[in-house]
Design a protein that fits this description.
Helix content: over 70%
Distance between the termini: 75 Å
Shape: globular
Order of helices and strands: HHHHHHHHHHHHHH
Number of helices: 14
Oligomer: single chain
Number of domains: 1
Length: about 290
Amino acid sequence: MVLFDSMTTVTIYTTITVIFLIWYGALANPFSIGGLFVKELVTNRKYLFHFIALLAILFLNKIELQIEQNMNYTSDFTAWFQSLEGDFVSNLQQLFHNDMLTTFLAFIYVVVFQALMIASIGIYTYQSKDRVMFYATCYAIMLNYLVAIPFYLFFPVNEVWAHDSSVAFLMLDAFPNFESEYRALSGLDNCFPSLHTSISVTLAILAIRSGNKRWAWFCSIVAACVIFSIFYLGIHWFIDMCGGVLLGVFASTTGIYLSKHGFSLSRRRKRTLAGSPVNYIREDAN
């Protein structure tokens, strides 16, 4: 079943999904949350800086593909990966192959994955007054890309379907123009570690740490579906997933630490200033 005919269709599906996910995760009007997001961008310099930095990292991922095309680096570790894990992906794909499942997992891989990132930003902007979880999400996503990009440049591994003829690229059943419409966002040899895995795991861990049980359950289920989809659709190796899980745990843990550590320093600084001799003098003068 053809689900996407162009990136325009993907954008429409993603927009609708983001609206639904924000409503589900925050139990609030998603358009009001959108207004709060815009307000924070305009009035909160720190918030704006982190959001711009996040966009810059996403743009850097696109630049990486251009850099890679101009490199004379010819190493290829794909055969080594297959020698280690054999026909795991091929066997899994043949065991579970079903047209309805292909459509569902293609939707998860292309739409829900990116909608989850956008919705998380909106939900944490709304629920966290000190924006700790928003900043943690920004740091964690940036870390995912900063760690993965060097591997994509110097440790190239091709997608499974492009190397193993027994594996079909099932994404084409739902998105026939994937190679011409979507491929510019994802290099064919940008497999290890799997960013779909690492970011999904990252968002699930952040959701669990946020205390929002509804959102935690949903993100955890989506992460499991994404991990299954990378094999079923014929894209990633099992080793890619392992690397992605480790990266996701590292990025989420570090992102939360950086966010909380930054705020603790800020609070400590305020307390120090509040108790400084200068303030006492001002109070006496009044």
